[in-house]
Amino acid sequence: MDYDSLQRAKAELEPRVRQLHGHLDPERKALELEQAEERTLAPGFWDDPDAARPLLQKRGQLQADIALAKKLDGGLEDLDTALELSRDDDAMLAEAEVLEADLRRTIEDAELRMMLSGDLDQNNAIVAIAPGAGGTESQDWAAMLLRMYLRFCEAKGWPTEMLDYQDGEEAGIKGATFLVTAPYAYGYLRAEAGVHRLVRISPFDSAKRRHTSFAAVYVSPELDDTINIDIPDKDLKIDVFRASGAGGQHVNRTESAVRFTHLPTGIVVSCQNERSQIKNRATALKVLKGRLYELEQQKFLDKVAAASGEKSDVAWGSQIRSYVLQPYQMVKDHRTGEETSQTAKVLDGDIDAFIRTQLLAKSLKTEG
After folding, report:
1. How far is CA 32 from CA 42, 48, 270, in A?
2. CA dist., res. 306 & res. 272, Å (int)
3. Among 201, 157, 233, which Cα is nearest to 324's?
4. Mean pLDDT in runs of 10 for the chain (368 residues)?
5. pTM of the predicted model, to two decimals?
6. Which domains does the chain have, with CATH numbers?
7. Most buried residue, 20, 45, 115, 138, by CB count within 10 Å?
8. Among 200, 208, 145, residue whose Cα is nearest residue 178
């Protein structure tokens, strides 16, 4: 990119940075952060971790928004300075090109966040993966999806915690649930909820035939105490069992793992990551409440779509994406048409383009 092209690029990026700065409003949020910090210093604040969690989560969101505004402003200033010094300096011109690309990526990520306006989009996310019918084939595919999402979170710097993990009988997994702790994790990852389809030559078939496998991805928000979801005892079937899989040897000696079955909906959740059955029950209940919240939200959207005569974009049970490894290489999202032949990169966690396109499509639909 030459000097004039970089100048035009900077002129195009400047108003986008100003708009984002106004949306993020770091000056106001700095005052809110100061107030939040003062509340954490109050006597007894840290005595009740559950009560403190909502404020700590809000503090993290404020810090993230302030840091993003500083990064945008600083990136624009750095680009402007590099351009001033690059008129007769090829090395500095190359540096300015790198700064322009970095700033553009930061702007695109920030603009994507602006699309996340749902009540709980800023919350942590609980992601569950379940294989479809098909035994080993689907269980192996579920394990591949689990790896994809963990790699995606790792690349983002988002901490994850495995809440439940059940090994498959021969390969793969019977199911897994993990928590993603990051601002707007739910808003981003809810775009991945639905059925994922894999087409490949089976590594478990001696005849090397092509197989189609399915796995479901469920994404729900981690709820705090401000949202009350009442679950009567009569609606729950509770089983306890010895944990297996990735929980470590200590969880296998006692029946510390817990499985909840919500009888009215058939939703099943389990947790086995803690030594204590009490802690596993609390975590499993939190996962169940998140799933029920998401289910009720989807029912509401379905009613709105039905009333308007539209075909609803149902996440639950719908096939959202196909991953074809043979006879050709292609990953295609059926909701947006987004596709790529870089299947290895996608399965290594490079799914930003799919999430971005889906969120943009939903944003435009809402505005329309």
Report:
1. 16, 22, 37
2. 40
3. 201
4. 91 94 93 94 88 85 92 95 86 92 91 79 91 88 97 96 89 93 91 92 83 91 78 91 57 72 92 84 89 78 49 50 94 95 97 91 64
5. 0.73
6. 3-114 (1.20.58.410), 125-367 (3.30.70.1660)
7. 138
8. 145
